[in-house]
């Protein structure tokens, strides 16, 4: 028998054929992880993956590589749909097969250095002699009976033999041994958790009136009773809680720190809901498609506050009831604790929430429990699309428009598109949900690839917020960046004890200068893109052509000295707000205030509990928050992101502003939104004021069609970087010339080579070649060949050549 195999160590990570030894013939299946070694080598082994098996070779098989052992007892680490998916990825994203496989498996699964063998309790000696007949099995058991627990390398040394996995797996199957992974971790395994005692008397509360902290902790514990909670979950100190324990009001235990998802944010379980008519209609469509057991993708276009989450949840109940499994993708878990929490509330132990703060051990355990089918739903960010679930019934991609779904390192896959493909391979239903569909998805809904489902209204007849523009040039100001008008609106809400969210939009603002008086942004006279302020040299510099000009502390247009150039302006705005509203507590949420673990959740919790009435932040405050008391949303520099040289600039701004506007008036009280704008009389705003996504889409699509940008074409970006600028350019030129010969004129256009938007990063010059593909595709073997040629030709210049299919970032 022959196996098509792939390994980082051989054939540049591309598939090759090897002979399967007779002894392993029954243990090896497609998707298995194996150990490979060189026949005449020094015994070092490498990890490989079996792609497929063949009775007869369909090409030459490698004569010097052999499969020496099989891991995980021959149980595939990649199931059939994941093998298909990673094959598709390699082909579509023009990347190596091995890269797509390693990307689909957590690092903890791919290493063997942490493997350990443990003796199970009931391996009686009598039984051992009866079952164990080979010498190797006998020696393993003999050693293990005394040692109880060894790492695989230890065992290999003791036995002087490398190939142990297969035999160990057999012993594991016989119930003698346990083969697992143990990762040492720096985080403590155990932490103290607290909860309220069951038998509290009526005097408990009054006895604490003089200790506000203890009282607050008591209330916090009560709200989560009878759960044991960690101090940080309720924002209480260990000391305070220990006093409660001493007084006999609370009890504590040592709790294992598990992968239990906790972001520091929690809300009370919501009461049971009856679905609205629109929700029911949407759900019916999803359910009847699901019953057909065929692949289908839906674009669930629901305005903000239309109750998409509940539709997902009800649909997944159907999926689980049919004995199937599901994947839920969210852009970033720490930023959307409410969504994750609501899923947890419905599915309890049936759901595994995967997040980046998990340790290796937790990641391994989570992966393992999904693979064994112990949990049925995997929820998490981008890479959760590779969850090792069998029998997949549905994939939900929440906020499908979010750019976080695109991975900006190799393999540069888009998790939304990968989700659609996985659903297709698994004959599952894919649901892409959003209030502002990406143009790609909306285009696919228009041309029938996806089925459009609308949720046009907010829950409970709540009205969509009314959006107004504030022209900063014509309006008096209350402070440097806040208009009189916005100020009065905020004051109005404070008077009614309502809440306000303020967004300091800083997208596309990295380092450029902005005049707060007239809105002027200094541009490069050669390239027409914003100049970047360099504080050390005190000059403005174009990152495109290198042109510089001295920095004068006043606006070149209106001479105002109110210039804004910090990359994060939230701190300054917080000060302005504090001066305007000295009595108010202001919560600020930006990269500076959310660096520590759980801080994001804590800020949201305070806002949720209405300990503050103003929340000010960057893009983070635009995402998925659902707070009923918010009646006003203000955006401070709403038009700033329109200046960046990216064809998606308008789409991103439209989506960001729609999302943040959607935080207002989600319950019975209507919401209002004020956008402070300085420059643009842009079409974006006209459509935004009308809340008309369709109109905006048609408008923008016309432009994209004319310029041949997606969705009118598919982009592929080739990048050459080097410390030597001439060489980087020469390599890009070779790339272009090669592509010209390959690409028939009618199937696409070629742009470049040109310096990248950010021409130099970390001392490396960057040159781009862009392909706009109208039809057909680039041939992966051809591109591979080109990539090899370029890296070989320019080896001495240290060229790094990368390919980005469907790039989200053209800078
Ligand atoms: P979206 O994600 O579409 O912006 P959400 O899913 O956050 O909206 O729902 C908005 C709010 O409406 C949430 O507080 C949710 O609990 C509530 N909600 C959803 N469906 C219903 C319903 N059928 N009846 C009452 N409230 C609902
Ligand atoms: Zn320039
Ligand atoms: Zn000015």
What does this protein structure show overall?
The protein contains 23 helices and 32 strands. The protein binds adenosine-5'-diphosphate and zinc ion (2 copies).
Taking strands numbered 1, 2, ... along the chain, how are they ordered across the largest sheet? 13-14-12-15-16-11-17
Counting DSSP E segments of at least 2 residues, the number of strands comes to 32
Q: Report, as a whole number of angstroms, the end-to-end distance.
A: 49 Å
**Which ligands does the model contain, each kind named once?**
adenosine-5'-diphosphate, zinc ion
Tally of separate helices:
23
Average predicted confidence as pLDDT: 86
Q: Classify the beta-strand content into a percent band.
A: 15-25%
Extract low-pLDDT stretches. none
The structure class reads alpha/beta
Oligomer: single chain
Globular, elongated, flat, extended or rod-shaped: what is the shape? globular
Short descriptors:
binds adenosine-5'-diphosphate; 32% helix; 22% strand; six-stranded parallel sheet; binds zinc ion; seven-stranded parallel sheet; 811 residues; alpha/beta; single chain
Question: Topology, pairings included?
Answer:
Elements: E1 2-6, E2 16-19, E3 33-38, E4 45-54, E5 65-70, H1 80-92, H2 97-104, H3 107-110, E6 115-119, H4 125-131, H5 135-147, E7 149-151, H6 152-159, H7 165-173, E8 177-181, E9 190-196, H8 212-224, H9 238-246, E10 250-256, H10 277-291, E11 296-302, H11 308-321, E12 325-329, H12 337-347, E13 351-354, H13 360-371, E14 377-380, E15 392-398, H14 415-425, E16 429-434, H15 439-446, E17 451-455, E18 466-471, H16 484-495, E19 499-503, E20 514-515, E21 532-534, E22 539-541, E23 548-550, E24 563-564, H17 570-580, E25 586-589, H18 599-608, E26 614-617, E27 630-635, H19 649-661, E28 672-677, H20 683-690, H21 693-707, E29 714-722, H22 725-742, E30 748-761, E31 764-773, H23 780-793, E32 800-805
Helix pairs in contact: 1-2, 1-14, 8-9, 10-11, 20-21, 22-23
Bound molecules: adenosine-5'-diphosphate and zinc ion (2 copies).
């Amino acid at each position: 028998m022959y196996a098509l195999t792939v390994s980082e160590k051989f054939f540049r990570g591309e598939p090759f054929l090897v002979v399967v030894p007779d002894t392993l013939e029954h243990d090896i299946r497609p998707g298995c992880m194996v150990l490979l070694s060189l026949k005449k080598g020094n015994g070092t082994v490498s990890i490989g993956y079996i792609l497929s098996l063949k009775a007869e070779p369909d090409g030459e098989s490698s004569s010097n590589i052999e499969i020496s052992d099989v891991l995980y007892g021959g149980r595939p680490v990649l199931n059939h749909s994941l093998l298909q998916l990673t094959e598709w990825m390699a082909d579509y994203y023009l990347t190596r097969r091995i890269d797509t496989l390693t990307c689909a498996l957590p690092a903890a699964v791919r290493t063997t250095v942490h493997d350990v063998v443990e003796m199970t309790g009931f391996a009686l000696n009598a039984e051992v002699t009866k079952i164990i007949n080979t010498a190797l099995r006998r020696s393993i058991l003999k050693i293990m009976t005394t040692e109880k627990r060894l790492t695989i390398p230890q065992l290999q040394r003791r036995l002087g033999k490398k190939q142990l996995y297969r035999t160990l797996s057999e012993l594991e199957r016989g119930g003698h041994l346990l083969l697992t992974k143990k990762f040492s971790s720096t985080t403590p395994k155990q932490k103290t958790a607290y909860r309220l005692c069951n038998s509290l008397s009526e005097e408990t509360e009054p006895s604490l009136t003089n200790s506000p902290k203890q009282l607050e902790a008591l209330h916090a514990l009560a709200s989560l009773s009878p759960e044991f909670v960690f101090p940080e979950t309720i924002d209480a100190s260990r000391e305070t809680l220990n006093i409660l324990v001493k007084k006999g009001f609370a009890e504590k235990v040592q709790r294992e720190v598990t992968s239990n998802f906790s972001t520091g944010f929690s809300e009370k379980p919501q009461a049971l809901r009856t679905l609205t008519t629109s929700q029911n209609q949407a759900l019916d469509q999803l359910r009847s498609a699901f019953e057909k057991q065929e692949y289908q993708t839906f674009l669930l276009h629901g305005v903000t506050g239309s109750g998409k989450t509940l539709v997902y949840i009800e649909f997944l109940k159907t999926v689980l009831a049919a004995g199937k499994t599901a994947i839920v993708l969210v852009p970033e878990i720490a930023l959307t604790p409410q969504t994750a929490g609501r899923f947890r509330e419905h599915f309890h132990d049936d759901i595994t929430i995967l997040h980046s703060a998990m340790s290796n051990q937790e990641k391994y355990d989570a992966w393992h429990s999904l693979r064994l089918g112990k949990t049925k739903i995997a929820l998490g960010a981008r890479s959760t699309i590779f969850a090792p679930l069998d029998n997949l019934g549905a994939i939900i991609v929440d906020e499908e428009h979010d750019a976080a779904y695109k991975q900006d390192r190799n393999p540069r896959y888009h998790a939304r598109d990968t989700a659609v493909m996985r659903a297709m391979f698994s004959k599952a239903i894919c649901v892409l949900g959003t209030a502002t569909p990406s143009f790609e998805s909306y285009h696919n809904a228009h041309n029938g690839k996806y089925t459009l489902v609308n949720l046009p209204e907010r829950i409970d007849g709540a009205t969509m917020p009314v959006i107004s523009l504030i022209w900063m040039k014509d309006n008096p100001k209350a402070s440097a960046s806040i208009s009189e008008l916005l100020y009065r609106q905020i004051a109005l809400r404070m008077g009614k004890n309502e809440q306000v969210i303020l967004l300091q939009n800083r997208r596309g603002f990295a380092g450029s200068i902005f005049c707060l008086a007239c809105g002027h942004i200094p541009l490069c006279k050669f390239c027409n893109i914003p100049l970047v302020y360099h504080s050390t040299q005190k000059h403005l510099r174009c990152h495109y052509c290198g042109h510089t000009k001295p920095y004068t502390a006043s606006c070149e247009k209106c001479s105002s000295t109110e210039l804004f150039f910090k990359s994060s302006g939230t701190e300054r705005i917080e000060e302005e707000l504090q001066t305007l509203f000295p009595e108010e507590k202001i919560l600020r949420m930006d990269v500076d205030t959310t660096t520590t673990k759980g801080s994001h959740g804590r800020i949201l919790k305070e806002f949720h509990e209405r300990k503050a009435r103003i929340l000010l932040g960057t893009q983070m405050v635009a995402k998925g928050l659902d707070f009923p008391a918010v009646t006003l949303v203000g955006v401070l520099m709403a038009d700033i992101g329109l200046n960046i040289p990216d064809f998606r600039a308008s789409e991103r701004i439209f989506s960001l502003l729609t999302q943040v506007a959607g935080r207002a008036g989600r319950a019975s009280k209507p919401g209002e939104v004020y956008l402070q704008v300085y420059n643009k009389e842009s079409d974006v705003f006209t459509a935004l004021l009308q809340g008309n996504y369709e109109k905006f889409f048609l408008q923008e699509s016309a432009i994209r069609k004319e310029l041949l940008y997606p969705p009118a074409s598919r982009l592929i970006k080739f990048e050459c970087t080097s410390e030597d600028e001439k060489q980087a350019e020469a390599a890009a030129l070779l790339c272009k010339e090669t592509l010209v010969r390959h690409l028939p004129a009618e199937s696409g256009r070629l742009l470049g080579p040109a310096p990248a938007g950010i021409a130099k990063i970390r001392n490396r010059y960057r040159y781009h070649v862009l392909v706009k593909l109208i039809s057909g595709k680039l041939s992966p073997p051809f591109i591979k060949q080109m990539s090899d040629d370029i890296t070989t030709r320019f080896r001495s210049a240290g060229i790094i050549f990368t390919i980005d299919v469907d790039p989200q970032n053209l800078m």
